[in-house]
Structures are given as C-alpha cells and as structure tokens.
User: Fold these one by one.
Assistant:
Number 1:
Amino acid sequence: MSDVHNYEHDPDGYLYDPGARTAMARLAGEDGEDGDLRAFEASAAVRTACHAVERLRAHGSEGRGVSAGALDLLIRLDAREQGISIGELARAAGVSSRNVTGLVDTLERDGLVRRVPDPNDRRSVLAEITPDGRAWIEDFRKPSRLAMKALFQGFAPEELVVLRDLCLRLAANQQRLSAHLRQIGSPQ
C-alpha cells in the first residue's frame, strides 16, 4: 500500500482525500445525508492517521529490535514502579492476554522485562521492566521526541488537546457500542 496521499482543501479550507471521499460517498449511499458522508470520511481519515502513527512507531521501534506492540508494553511498564499483571496489561493495551503473553515472552528473552511473583497473590505473576528495559526506553526517548515534533508540526497546542479529546471520544463510543452489542448478543 502506498504511503502517498493526494489531499485537497475543501471550500472551507479543510483537508480531505478525494479518493476516500468518492469511496465513502458510495458506501454512505445515495439516500445518505451529508452527516453520513462526513462521518464516513472522518472514519477514513482517522484510519489514515492511525496507520501513519503506527508506521512511524514501527519504523522507530523495529529498527531497535522491538515490535510496535512490544514497545507499547515497555512504555506502559516504564511508567510504573511495580509490575503489572498480564491481564491488566492486555486491558490497558486493548489486546488479548495471549498477545501480551507472547510479547512479554519476547521482551523477557531480550532481557527488557522479567516476571516476578505477585506480592498480593502467590498464584499470580507480574510483568516488570528491567534496568536494561528502562535504559532501552531512555535511548528511545530522544528520537521519539523528535519524531513526535515532526509528526505534529504545525499543530497548535490547543489543537493537540482537541485531537486527543476527539480520538478518545471515538474510542469511548466504540467501547459503549461493543458492550451494547455483547449485551444484546449481536455479532460485532
């Protein structure tokens, strides 16, 4: 898939993707209202932005021998003084426990994470970042700052707050919708 997009400005000066607009208009249907098309276009734009951020993260982490998923776990573990259970990590990352177990296995083999007994439950173990893991994160910090500065070039601080809010509102809506669908037994 090509990383090159040809964006244009609409009459109000906002960027849009003409190819996505054409595809989304067809998906929204002829009887769809303008709001439907705007929602479909916004969804396509969020997906494009998500892919852009993930490509940047993957480029930065895989060049250092860690997948983007493992990087996410390392960042979460680095923010904590004590370990965290696999289940808690999975919930925080929005992935399955099986996925997190595999990532922790890999990070443990690389000496960046270790499993330690849970002091509150002797049957359980916690994942904990090692000193080598903290050093890895520290080495990753400066290039990450530079990448984020470049990625969000031209954004005002207030825009970043609004962008964060909008993205988290989307995620919260999706979580509510998923919970509702689970409750009524509808396929997701």
Number 2:
Amino acid sequence: MNRGNELLPIGELAARTGLSVSAIRFYEEKGLVQALRTAGGQRRFLRSDIRRLSFALIAQQIGCTLPEIAAELAKLPQGRTPTPADWRRISNGFSKLLDRRIAALQRMRDTLDGCIGCGCLSLKKCGLYNRGDRAARTGVGPRYALGVRWDSFE
C-alpha cells in the first residue's frame, strides 16, 4: 500500500493535524474529508487527509468559507494520495479565488477613509458622492466598497 493511502484512526489524524476529534468529524460532515469504516464501525482516514485538513485550516485563516474550501478539495481525487499535478490544478483555482479576495480587500482599503456608498447619507461627504442615494439603484450594501464606481451614477 502506498504510504499516502495508509489508514489512520481519527485520534492519530487529530494528533497529526492539531485538530480535535470533534473538529475532524465536523469537517467530515461538511465533506472536506471522507472516512472509511472498519468492520467494527470505526472511522479510518487516509494519511493524505492530513494535507486536505491542513489546506482547509490555511484557507480558513485567510477568510475562505467552508463551501469554498470544499469546492476546491472536491477537485482532488478521493481514495488516493493527490499527486503534485493534482495539487497544481487545485492551486490554480485557489489562486484565482485569492486574487478576487485580494482585489476586494484592496478596494476596501482604498475606500475606508471615504464614503462607502451605503446610502445612509449620514456623512456630509455622502451628499457629494451619493446625492439622492444614487448608489442604492445598483443594489444594497456598501456599493463603493463592493467595487461600484461613484462616478457611474452621473
């Protein structure tokens, strides 16, 4: 058996990832990892699930949601250790997700000291940039921070 296909009990997986057993069960419930069952009903995980869970932890630290993480992990093969080519494929998709997130963070940084176009008109400056609540025509929420240009309302 390939070492990556070696089966680990949930306690050992917890020890290797730093996650609690209950957290691993939660991630299993969300589809991030998939346990195999022994004849006695005990969970066994592939050694390669260490990498899957590590990826999930890193992705959560940078603000990715569990559905986003699950979508990326779904691109990896089940039942075998992902190859470097498999990880390259997932990293390409994940890079695009990160690029979108970085762009959103940069927009937020650039608009923090100005009107965020929320439509509240509570700031004196909003009367200049969002006269008559024009930003509300494009939808709800902080329109400028979400990338709607204030000069597009002219």
Number 3:
Amino acid sequence: MSPDERAGYDRTVSGCGNYLLVDGPVPLAQVQTALTEIMRETLLPESSITATTWTPGLARPGFHFHANGPSTYSGDTTRTAEPLAATIHASPRYHWDFGDGTAEATSNMALAAKGGSAVDVTHRYSRPGYFRVAVTVTWTGTFALAGVPQLLPLQPVRLSTATEIRVTPLDTVGALPR
C-alpha cells in the first residue's frame, strides 16, 4: 500500500472505533453504555447508608457506617436486556465522605485482608453538629457476549447516596481537637 493509499484508508476508517460483530456491527462503546445503564437501573441494588453509634471500650465514641449491597456482582442480563445478553463480573470500590472534610476510600480486597468489609467503616467526629455522610460505590469489571471469545471491560458504574447524621457532644468525648 502506498503512503497515499494508506492515508485514504486511514481517513475512511477514522472515527469508526471498536465494533462487535455479533449480529451486525455494533460499536463497543454503545454496548458498554447499555450495560452500564442496565446495571445502574436494574441489576445493582439502590445504595443506602446505615449509621450507628460505635463506642469501643467507652473511649472515643464514633459512628459505624454500613452501605448495603453485595461484595461482588456476577450475573447475566438475559432476562433484563433482550437482545443484549451478557455475562457480567464486577466488584465495587467505595468512597466515603464523612461531611467534616475527611474521606476514605475502601475496597473489598483491601479490607478483607484485615478481616473487615469495605461496606462497613468507622469514623470519629471532633465536634458536634449535623454532617452529611455520602458514599459513592464504583463498580468495575468485565463482561462477555456469546460468540465473542474475549472478556471486554465494563464502563464504571457509579451509585451514590447520602444521609445526614447528628453528632452530639457525647459522641465527641475524647476526640482530638482540630
């Protein structure tokens, strides 16, 4: 192929992107976007936060937060996304914002090694007041389609929720001043 022929070919295919050829050409990004919406709207549970007072040994009280949801997701979309039937494997990462200027990122793998769970975190507040606690769960993983031999990456699926808590002076006993 001459340089001019190559340039003409490059112009012709530019912008085509990656395509899946299952029952005709479908842009990979379109499939990823569709699966992201299916996961967000149908397959993954709605996020929620449970907050309880946590007082280990009656010293430095704080709060224990729990985000609902599975530690991994494995399943398929055959009943929810006809004709887009995919097998999905995904795991979550959690980003907690405690409303007082502090945040924590957790993952199931990091905390499982310590005997904990990423959906459960504890936090101590240094002052009383009302705080908006938020968690964003980001699901990442792969999917497979019938007739496509390799696993394909999912677009990240983000689910967020928040709740307001009240921290009383008793909840900050022994907390370090800021």
Number 4:
Amino acid sequence: MTRYVALLRGVNVGSVRLAMADLRRIVTDLGHEDVTTYLQSGNVAFGSSVRDAEKLAAGIERALTDELSLTVPVLVRSGRELAAVAGGNPYADREDDPKRLLVAFLATAPRESTVDALTVPGGENVSFTVTGREVFLHFPDGGYGRSKFTNAYLEKKLGVVATTRNWKSVRALAELVAG
C-alpha cells in the first residue's frame, strides 16, 4: 500500500465548492484506504495499491465529474515525492514565515524552453526555482496574495496545470502521508 496526496486545483477558493466529507467519500468509494482531508482546500491523503499517479488523478477527476458535476484538475504525489518536496525547498533556510514560501505543483514537467523564458513580473521581488514538476516560490517582501506571480500566471507561462500550496500545508501534507 502506497500513501498518496491528491491536490485539487481551485477548490473552495473560487467558484468551485466541495465539502471535504464528499471528497473523502468519493476517494473511499474508489477503493482507497485511510482517506483523510487536510483543510478545506482540496487536499486528500490516502493509501492505494494502484501505483500510477496519473491513473489515480484521472479516477478522482472522473468521480468528481460523475457524482458532483465538478470539473476539477487533480494532481497526485506519492508520499515519497512529497517528502522530497518538503525536504528540498531551496529557500527554507532563509525564510521562517511559511506564508512567504510556497510550492506550485505542476501536472507535468514543463518544457525547458518555457522554464527558461519564465520571468517575474516587473517590480516584484520573487524568487523561484523550477525542479521537475514543482516550482518553489519565495516572496520575501510579502505574501503571495499581493503578487502577480500567481498560479494562473505560472499556468499561462509554463503551459501546464498547476496548483499552489503554502509551505505550512506542504509540510503538513508530507507528515500526513508519512504515517
């Protein structure tokens, strides 16, 4: 049994409303075990014998559509992958405010040319590091909420679906799937 986290994009922060009880029920009904949600923003940890994260994501997406008529992108990371993210933030040693550190999880690794072309909007002090399917973000002058370097900006510039979590959530989710 492998532990996973499914990260749903845009749940309960915009127009898509989803009760976490419904999310737990859907993931459980798909045959997964030890299903737990974290916060109200579409984070669900679970155990599964399925070893294909893309298949897991597609199954959850399909069930959300079939049962609740919701179209929500779902990104899945294994516990091992999430532990690597939580242990690999290049800005963690220089920032102790988890609201200034974030991770954008990407559905797929972006093309190298789009990564090379990625820049911070003018006048903003933001550091970023793209590593595979994650973008580590550091906002030293303030929080993510005031920036134009948003999830939507990353999706547009990198050409991939993304969902962003603050550092506190990343660490909590990593602990949740660690057992």
